[in-house]
Design a protein that fits this description.
161 residues, homotrimer, alpha+beta, 3 helices, two-stranded antiparallel ribbon, five-stranded mixed β-sheet
């Protein structure tokens, strides 16, 4: 989809053009907050594939969930990240760059397809913010994530001062 | 306890009011340092549940250690983090915000209670710095941590320039 | 080796003195970039022990690979990090500090020697940048890494504005 979008379009207008409706921003599962800004950096908590504070996906990649389901779970976590960022900033148009994605996959011991799953988040962010704002990325396979969910996504945005 | 504390109290006076005595700051287990400041950000190395350079807790959550023991281990790691930050800054009153906690739990494959353990660190920091300085948080379950310890805590503080 | 080097030598001259030839900078395995700079911070993607976009090491520490092989794999990932940083900055002499190393080791459930493996990266960076620029460090044992590789290295550099 991204090919049809102009790099100069704003993130909010891209979201509209893509027909994406963000969910309600989530709330924390403990004594932390969802977003903290320091200077031009906006740090987000580890985002999970939840809907309305409930896990929408549970299980491990390579066993309980297919690659495609893992990608859907990560897309949901990325949508939750966008919702939290918009709530904090007022508008996603204040994002000047996606700095870093940390992608954590609960997977079996022989899982190898980390980049294909992680791309689900990277591709959504590319479509929303434009390919000129693409982030660095860290992806690892872990043994467990909160409440048995299969993916977790950490984001650092650069934002207008 | 935090309810009885004033958000404007300094971190050092809160520590005194809470009756908390910080341990001696730890030393690295290799060719790294415990704290690095860049601009207004103070990065800490992964803090472990050690006393005097020795592991105080060993084993995995969900098998060798109960949830409550995991919380005690993480509280100890958080106390070590405060000790390192104070050594670097001179006083914890120079902390203007806790930006990010990264919580790593060595746990069995069916462990699900990550937020309850991670809250042990978040609650200590809330009590010391006040609820207005609460951080974002990342928590994942990993297969192993250095020397077989059950928890590791990474911290980024925002500090006075 | 570091003892014979002057802390004031530049990183590029140290590399020459050490006889180190950096590899070609790698390319991403998905929809991300290898390096992003924001202000004085240069974030790198998780670097892998690859040569020419192919895994050079595969398997798990404690089972398929010895400690020494793990160190060799991490040294290769660290060389790839230096190559990417130089490509982004033009010269490694613009690095003013190594801020943080994140070391991720795919290892068996009884692996405990995380610091010894992680030191392979820390020692290379100390030799190249000098001991006065040593970073904080996070090291964890994970279940899997992309394409079955045994190590992954995340780096944040502080650079000239």
């Amino acid at each position: 989809m991204s090919e049809t979008l102009n790099n100069n379009d704003s993130a909010e207008s891209r979201l509209r053009d893509l027909g994406i409706q963000l969910p309600e921003p989530g709330s924390p599962f403990g004594a932390y907050v969802e977003a903290v800004q320091t200077g031009n950096l906006l740090f987000l908590s580890g985002m999970l594939p939840t809907e309305g504070h409930s896990p929408k996906f549970v299980g491990k990649l390579g066993k309980d969930l297919t690659l495609e389901q893992g990608r859907s779970a990560l897309t949901l976590a990325a949508m939750n990240a966008l919702a939290v960022a918009r709530e904090h900033l007022g508008t996603l148009d204040r994002v000047t760059r996606v700095i870093r994605l940390g992608v954590y996959l609960a997977a079996t011991d022989d899982f190898k397809e980390h980049p294909k799953v992680a791309d689900a988040a990277s591709e959504l962010f590319r479509d929303v913010f434009g390919s000129g704002k693409t982030s660095v990325r860290q992806v690892i396979g872990v043994s467990t994530l909160p409440f048995g969910m299969p993916v977790e996504l950490e984001v650092i945005f650069e934002v207008e001062g």
